[in-house]
Each structure stands twice: as C-alpha cells, then as structure tokens.
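Something for you to look into today, if you have time. What I am after is a single protein written out in full by you. I want to see for myself how the chain folds. Could you add the entry underneath, on a fresh line?
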Amino acid sequence: MAMLPQVFDASLIDPSEGYVLWPAGTYTAQIVASDMRPTKDGTGQYLQLEMLVFDGALAGKRVTERLNLLHRNERASEIANRTLSALCRAIGKRIVAESTELHDQPFTLEIAVRATAQGRAANLFFYRALAPSAKPQHASSQQVQPRPVAPHPAQVPSAQPMPVSTSAAQTLPAPPTQPLRPPLPASSTGGDPIMPWHRKLVLE
C-alpha cells in the first residue's frame, strides 16, 4: 500500500487519450474544431485544434494539435505562439481574435517524427500555405468561345445567275428546221391555186 501525495480528484483533470504517432508525410488539411482549455495544473491555457486530413495515408483522419499559449514555462509558450503564427500565415490570417476564424481554411500540413529526450518517438507539425497549383481555379478564368451569330437577312448576298460556258453552248444540237409545204397546184384559168374543196367542185 502507498499513500498518494495528496487526495486525487479525477473530475478535475482531463483523462489521457493515449498517444498516437502519425506517419511522416505532407498532407492537405483544415481545422474543423477548436477550444481553449486550462492546463492540468490550472496555471495556464492551451489551444486545442482538431484538423481533418483530406489526402494521403491519413485521408479522413482527425489530427489534434495542442498549443500552450499561456504556460508558466516561457519556452513552451514561445514555441506555441510561433506555431500559431505559422498556422495563421498558412491560411492567410494575420490577426485573429477567435479560434473559429481558423476553421475551414485548407493548408499544407507537414508531419515529422523525432525522438524525445526520454527516448520515445513524437510528432512535429509544420504548417505551410497551399501551392498555387493545388488551389481550385475560379470558373471565370476559363475562356469562353463566342457563339457564332447568323447574318442578318439584309446582309445575305442575292443569288447570281450561273454563267453559261461557251464551250458547252457550242456542243448543244441545233434545233430541227420545219419542213416546207409543197406548193399548191395552180388553177387552169390562171387564178388562185386550187384548194382541195375547189377540186371537188370542178370534177362534178
């Protein structure tokens, strides 16, 4: 049996969530939740950021970052504030009053793995702005081809007769000539020509 140094109240201290070692790599992520929480000893505060990763081996995973912005250890506070500055610059925010202003802004998350003084592996997070090629292009940047416009009826040229080739005209056959009628027989009296009906009368 061992006596604790003091009475321990678990309701006053956040339970340990365990340590997850994320694989090193470069990912695209954005902050989806944030909260200011007190440190375990109650002497300071840290900013907890929950980041959603979109690609790579961590696609769909949520990575947590804790920044000791107010800490009794000045070195820890300095590192946390410098990290927050890098995150703000990565998403294009220079002045931030509320942590929600950091939400839903994509950035590049670089995760490294290093060994601590205690000999265990730990993650380091680095924040970079997205490359221009990774940013979605606006629809207005696409060139739109003009639609052809039908000409006005007054501008449509009138139909011109097709020229006739002289060589083609020369090859056409000449129109047939009308045969001449034979001359009618003249009257025996020297008068007008004898018509068919006149001949009948003479014979009778």
User: Anything to note?
Assistant: DSSP finds three helices and five strands in the chain.
